[in-house]
Amino acid sequence: MKKLTLLGLIVSITALALLLGGCAGSYQARSVDMKPDTILVNPDIMQKGTGDQALYRYVNPAVNFKQYTKIMIEPVLIYKQAELDQDQLINYQKLANNAFVFLNQELSTQLTVVTVPGPDTLRLQLAIVDADSSKPVRNLLSSVMPIGIGLSVVKYAVTGKQSGVGEITVEMRVTDAISGQLVAAAYDRRVGGKAAEGIWDTWYNADSALQYWAKKTDWAICDFKGGTNCVKP
Fold it and tell me: Which CATH number does 25-134+166-224 carry?
């Protein structure tokens, strides 16, 4: 009986910490399987990130970021478009459209967004590799029911992802708009947090991740350019 009571206490404390720490719309996954046939960047050049960096990343050490004052943002690509049914494609396209808007909103604060290549211009391309919607009922039950919370804690401990939440994986490439020289690249995956305000929106977690990446990209460019007022998300 004492063992069961102790186990219940541990689960409750862990669950509370998990729920309090997971209130954001998304957080970085522990790992991601980089596909060998990535469509934007040769995976061989990518290195594992550390801390809050992308899970895989590349930064060209020879590039002078300070020279860039403009950016071209390409329409967001969908990696496995041919594999999706009509409903899935509609949802993926909404995510792609939202990502394009988020990137424009964030990056326009420090760079001039242009639509044609030119000098001192970066070209950014983003591709949605994979995405999964949240499951609202499962998400709710695993947030408020003791049994559900316990199972969610166990799943998080094993996989790094809670029950019922969504996720999304993206690939990003930044090049010189004129020369095509690779400037930077990232491959990252984020999973959903237990955000109460988005529990009934099945794509809230994925959208939150896309918003985060837009802000993180804006911060990274600002940081590389030596800015003093860079805001880290």
Answer: 3.40.50
